[in-house]
Write a structure and sequence with these properties.
293 residues; Rossmann fold; alpha/beta; 2 domains; 16% strand; six-stranded parallel β-sheet
Amino acid sequence: MQILDGKSCASAYKDRISAEVSAAILTGKRKPHLAAVLVGSDGASETYVASKVKTCKEIGFESTLIRFPETVTQEELIEMVDRLNADSSLDGILVQLPLPKHIDADQVTLRIDPTKDVDGFHPGSLGRMMLGLPGFVPATPKGIMMLLAHNKIDTTGMHAVVIGRSNIVGTPMSVLLSRNQNPGNCTVTLCHSKTPDLKSFTLQADIVIAALGKPEFLKADMVKTGAIVIDVGITRVEDLTSPKGYKILGDADFEPLAEKCSWITPVPGGVGAMTIAALMQNTLEAWKRNTHA
């Protein structure tokens, strides 16, 4: 078993991004600029946004954090998105999900300028991804592809089983793995909550992407020896023995699975780190277009 170390891989990508930005700044170009909008004070969202802001600083990006109380109206939030769209100094905009129930997240996403949609959630971004055109790929699937590429894992001819069909992870992941590229060139099965006898599919898989948000759902008896397991899940579970009062678990039952797998991502330190690295890569690409770098 080998660990697919997202932290070290993300660090390598961030070093390359930082070097490219530093060289461009020396020629007189401005820094890439990412704006994040955070609504409310959800603990996980606070952690994610803080990590994104910290990473921006580490690699030489500008970042702007806009906070709203949970009581913000949809109109106020959309008005802010419009202002950010019009700001020519901004390259990327992200609105941290989930949003409060009284806000239609789809309408907010639709309002983001597709040229600044570094999360890759806009229908325009997803449409370009489906057609294989240049554009922003959702950060988590993109990060997984970057992780596989960095570790020189040849997925050609593999049977990939993706568990979860969200528009943010599962569905785009299935598209990317089936593309005529490497990583890619997989035969892909997309499973979900209505899939009968899920285990019969995962046991056939050479690579399993678990993206359903259920802690330790994927058990060792659900995968064959030598399979690759990519764990996208990240759930806070109460743990009174921890100083924080909780522990972070993925969708995979890590220890028993690690004994059977050829490669496996840890949680934390796996896909989460790569998601942020991919977000920074998307922001870099937006900046290049805006500054003609």
